[in-house]
Amino acid sequence: MAASGAAPAETPTVEAVARGEADRPHSAVVRFGADTPLRLDAGGVLTSFQVAYQTYGMLNAARSNAILICHALSGDQHAANVNPVTGKPGWWETLIGPGKPIDTGRFFVICSNVLGGCMGTTGPSSTAPGGRPYGLELPVVTIRDMVRAQAMLVDHLGIEKLLAVVGGSMGGMQVLQWAASYPERVFAAFPMASAARHSAQNIGLHEVGRQAIMADPDWRGGRYLEEGTSPRRGLAVARMAAHITYMSEASLHRKFGRRLQEREDRTFSFDADFQVESYLRHQGEAFVDRFDANSYLYVTRAMDYFDLAADYGGVLANAFKGTRTRFCVVSFTSDWLFPTSGSRAIVHALNAAGAPVSFAEIESDKGHDAFLLEEPELFAITRGFLDSAARTLGVS
Amino acid sequence: MAASGAAPAETPTVEAVARGEADRPHSAVVRFGADTPLRLDAGGVLTSFQVAYQTYGMLNAARSNAILICHALSGDQHAANVNPVTGKPGWWETLIGPGKPIDTGRFFVICSNVLGGCMGTTGPSSTAPGGRPYGLELPVVTIRDMVRAQAMLVDHLGIEKLLAVVGGSMGGMQVLQWAASYPERVFAAFPMASAARHSAQNIGLHEVGRQAIMADPDWRGGRYLEEGTSPRRGLAVARMAAHITYMSEASLHRKFGRRLQEREDRTFSFDADFQVESYLRHQGEAFVDRFDANSYLYVTRAMDYFDLAADYGGVLANAFKGTRTRFCVVSFTSDWLFPTSGSRAIVHALNAAGAPVSFAEIESDKGHDAFLLEEPELFAITRGFLDSAARTLGVS
């Protein structure tokens, strides 16, 4: 009743909460030790690392109803629960939940933070065995390394075969890598808004973001966590640049046009006169609170290095040779970051490999982000594809 | 013959040469004083400013063969001569010269540095009346202000009416502004790869560049010239980001693909493994040597503010009401920065205004930069349009 004498607990900042996730996340964690080393494409081995993950729904007795969700560059394992850092809904709650296209009343859904991330799976902001954060001493990781770590998690959960692996953008790259590396463990694969290799344009866009981060003197050669600084401005610029690429000209025009931000007329200054400027600045700042700058370097680099055909003699079809996995490939008409041509190349390779594949280019003006948004056609396709897979496997 | 005792003169750096251009350029300069003030859209007046310009060819006795060239964001007045800063050919030597589509054997060609620029026309790096560089104390300028200054230059040269005004990208914006502000002074107008207003996407892209510059601590609130610093890293990031938008995915793929830069395999690091990274880093660094960071802020802002219809009751056709100027409008299929839809909007407005206009969408995979490159169809159209205008005016 009366005011207590104790000082009120200070609410930690979003940034502070995010920092805490690296080693002690608000998620289930599985730790791997020297007995289960992770061999990396860069050479070398991780002998002590962890994977943070969320699950939704129940694994059935036959262990046949598991669906693995792979997240994109700026995503995390909180696909269908409130994000503990931002307090916002999970990034794929449009698609995942009871009665939704990825129906958690029926399926056991798993989503783990990628290797190199900052939400509890080992990444550059994790504490290294020596007691300091890894920083750039963590070896550069690849999409294949991420998938290897996920396979170890799936082993740990006692699941031999996944009903489906599903993901968009970088998540789609992981889906393709799963189908190539572990064909017998993937019954159905669903890459959307993705590609089997990162394009020159996209490598260039990533390089701009990395240079923005590394140009920030507060980056301190990657040692900012120990030095108590934060390359906020560089990371914000990287995010602003990237955010434009996730939308389409049409969606930016519809959302903002040339409307001014809470003012009657131009100020003839470098203030954020236009709503689109104000929006992008906000996107940059919000991202900095929740995402680690070095993780941004690592995860973009993993995407740059992704070129599935290169591991199979330069012929993408060879990555899927003899596969019995069924595929569904989706692209969006206004996605200029991962255009339909990239999805078509996947479909052609699957056709050449004789794999069953359906393909849809969905009409949308929402750009690359369409896969995260309300897209009824995507929902219908996802539901249909997973229903059919479940029926075939006898999952009720 | 024998070595002289004097120390050899040091070759000044490209950056030092560029700095010298702001006040004392390697170009003709016309100075305007208090008797010819320049009223700015931002309010206020410039009572002392200068315009630096180049001319090519000879003005005929009737003064009827003058063509004004308007340059783009990163351009300057050195359209058809060796650039005194970089030592490279002029940026439009593809199009301008003896016997070329803009034939300097026949036409008197004028190109001036824009207001807000850094190559001799008054801009933020120019010395203000108080003796210090303007920095951000120069009022923000608009495309219309740039055109007002150009009109004063054209007056100074004793030219009443221009045979043609020609420009691409931001140069095309100036062409449209000329046609709207001074219809009786423009016989033929040729905007290419341009738009009558800057789109939300393009404002966003500019804002990223500005934030990159202003995030650089060496920017010093715009006072870097006096403080002896230079926001090189910020400006380089801005240029890298912009450079990607000037190309197309196809041209980046053709030029670089996923080829590695002078190495056999990926280094698994954040080095510039890929040629496209190395190229972009080089573009960023080369730009910083020749361009002023504050000018980048001013000139991008002028483009953002450009919305020709807004000055005419929101109806673009009204900007051209009753005009007798003839127009040629050109766009390029792979230009996603200034897509054909923007050129079409200009053409529709000209149609509505009853103005004579021809329009060509040129098939090219070179992106926005196509207007600066070897494009035979563009050359043929330019030659044809200018020939016809010259013939009509009796210019031999």
TrEMBL record, chains A, B:
Substrate binds at residues 239, 369. Pfam families: Abhydrolase_1. Its main location: cytoplasm. GO terms for molecular function: homoserine O-acetyltransferase activity. Pathway: Amino-acid biosynthesis; L-methionine biosynthesis via de novo pathway; O-acetyl-L-homoserine from L-homoserine: step 1/1. It catalyses: L-homoserine + acetyl-CoA = O-acetyl-L-homoserine + CoA. Residues 1-20 are annotated as: Disordered. Residues 65-374 form the AB hydrolase-1 domain. It is found in: Cytoplasm. The active site is at residues 169, 335, 368. Its EC number is 2.3.1.31. Coiled coil: none annotated. Keywords: Acyltransferase, Amino-acid biosynthesis, Cytoplasm, Methionine biosynthesis, Transferase. It comes from the Bacteria. Belongs to the AB hydrolase superfamily. MetX family. Transfers an acetyl group from acetyl-CoA to L-homoserine, forming acetyl-L-homoserine. Homodimer. This is Homoserine O-acetyltransferase.
